[in-house]
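Discussion board: Methods & Data

I've been asked by a reviewer to show the raw model output for two of the constructs in my manuscript, not just the figures. I'm not sure how much to include, so I'm pasting the format here to get opinions. Each protein appears as its amino acid sequence followed by a line of discrete structure tokens. Is this the kind of thing reviewers expect to see in a supplement, or should I convert it first? Here is construct A:
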Amino acid sequence: MADVLLEVNHLQTQFREGKTKRITAINDVTFQIRKGEIVGLVGESGCGKSVTSLSIMRLLQDTAGEITNGSVLLNGKNLLTLSEKEIKRVQGKQISMIFQEPMTSLDPVLRIKKQMLEEIQLHMNLTKEKALEHAADMLKMVGIPDVAQTLESYPFQLSGGMCQRVMIAMAMSCYPDLLIADEPTTALDVTIQAQILDLMRELNRKNGMSILLITHDLGVVAETCSRVIVMYAGRIVEQADVQTLFQNPRHPYTRGLLACLPRIGRRVESLPSIPGTVPSLNEMPEGCKFAPRCRLATDLCREKEPELRDVEGCEGCQVRCWLAGQKEAKEALK
């Protein structure tokens, strides 16, 4: 497809444990992001969202992680086959990322000015003076009041929320084709959260920047994204457009996530929850990985893992469930 910007095919990432053991963190992850599209990636902590983003960005080199299968195509070019020198030209310019932990992502011994100028000058071919002006403009756009002082500061002199805004400004400063935002508003107050999301949507509209938004906040997904990917235990279990997913979720896990949302006008003593926890990477169950927590699980579910399959009559919709589409299952999950 001509309008596909990012194409992830059968991606598998494993982590080394000891000399011989390997643990699979994400397995057979396949999805696409079109040009100008905002896609939400949701799921509980530990389901593989951040590892997926780091794998796409090729940022696992200095860790125990290794991509062991699949491809990541950006504008038709496989990022996994690029040399270190070639991937450096892509990172920050064509594809950029807002990290979940800003305090550990910024260099503690370099001033903010130095860190921002390095990337802007590398990718935008600006003079130091013009690059500094651009850096100041980006900091203003993310709501930093005293830009001059912030540029001269070290990360440890700023609060967590300020560091997060600096990270967002750095990630968007070169207007990448694809922005991966891993919980971009976690450390920010509600007013700044709304401002940052508005800025991301504005850059999406004006520059056609595609966004992969990783978040726990389904309200943000409903308001911001056009399509949603749901992950569980390192696998995609469902993907659909936002309206379809919220109105007619097909996977029991997706239905459980939506049932946990508080709703205006509904009084309850306690919010619903999904029983159990995400399985450990060391102790993955046989069959469907969600079966131990699913009240509809059958012997087939516990014995054999379903494939991610297309949903009939719903373009772009996929689900990984033996029971999806069965009328009895839909009624039981209401």
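Construct B, same format:
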Amino acid sequence: MAPSKDPRLILTRGGGPLHRQIYDYFRTAISAGQLRPGDRLPSARTLAQQLMVARGTVDAAYAMLAGEGYVIGRRPSGTIVSPGLPGMEHAAATSKPRSRVAPSIVLTGAAKPFQLGLPAIDAFPRKLWSRLVARQGRDLSVADMGYPEHAGYRPLREAIAAYLAVARGILCDARQIVITSGYQGAIDTIGRVLLRRGDKVWFEDPGYHLARAALERAGVPLVPVRVDADGLRVADGVARAPDARLAIVTPSHQAPLGVALSLPRRLALLSWASEAGAYVVEDDYDGEFRYTGRPLPALKSLDRADRVLYAGSFSKVLFPGLRLGYLVLPEELVEAFNNIILIRSAGASTFEQRVIATFMREGYFARHLKRMRSLYAARRQALAEALSAVFGERLAVDLEPGGMHLVARVGGGARDMDLARKAQAAGFAIDSLSSRVIRYRREGGLLLGFTNIPEADAVSTCRRLERVIGVDLLSFNISN
């Protein structure tokens, strides 16, 4: 995080408390002479808005800096580096002259063109969220400052249960829900509770690369199961590994192909799990976003034998910086999961959970989802039309009825990986379909997120991409 000639403040999702990251950055910048005595720091309000964090987070960082004498508050000048800071005269004298401006700010979570998995951060109700954060801060009691409930803040779990009953057709009790540190945290906990050395896991091919990497790193034997237009080919899984302990699926909107698991295959998957004594992990990462008809009921809603673990996340429906998700557990697994969570992490921070619970209970969550569905439908259509207008027959776009990204087929097998690398080097956050394949090769494609491309920018963004990869697409033939 040490500042360079062009200093940048970068917040990372796994880099520790956000206020501490901000504090560390400015302290290093001051110590290195890149911020000199008298230099002005961004106002707490401005910095909080740019970083998309609560103002209290910035206030806490500035308070730490002030407490150690690095900065002082001077109205109306704002917060400045302490004049005559001991030991800083030499650094200020030897540092190269530069303009007296605040450091530029670059976020690892900031949207890049076509970035996958990132909700429309430009449309998030930040002012409303900030008010709820401030309210929770004012209402913080002594009891709230103790250890959190290891399964999660009870009112949030109750709000999730009420939401799932209406929106996803899942009938469960709050006791069956545990709060996790996002989907990756859920996968880690599932592995620790359910898997033993040598247990096999069905995994969609192609599938979600981060979950695959986490399981492979843990030494779990993955059984790639091909995906087609109807989703996971359950019969293939049964033929290859009938004794698998677990199947991990994305039935509402397959990651990355975007297809939905057909009803016959859903029933076949549940039947296999019941007969084999296996479990199914349903990753419903963006099931809320469907643009044709109503959202599909969750696989868990069909689960009469209680074999499905339903995984949801607030990363896609709110914003990823929260790093919070949840699992709906079969009754027989509740105690085992609670025990592991208690031993491993003792639960997640209560404060953010309280804010989300309020956001859900007071009706803001449902309204936000409705607004995002409408916005995404418009952006999805605009991007599909722009790709067609700019690339013509060089790209074939699969316009699936749901999700947060498009698949643009390019043909030529693994050539899509070269195209993706070239686009990434030019600043586009594009991934290739081939990079998600485990065993079963298929036609190449580009994975294009549309959530952060406004309708008015769709054509210009596609033209910029065409200037980067257009020549390489001339040789592709996708007329079939």
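Answer (T.O., handling editor elsewhere):
This is acceptable in a supplement if you add a one-line summary per construct. For B, something like: Residues 411 and 478 are 6 Å apart (CA to CA).
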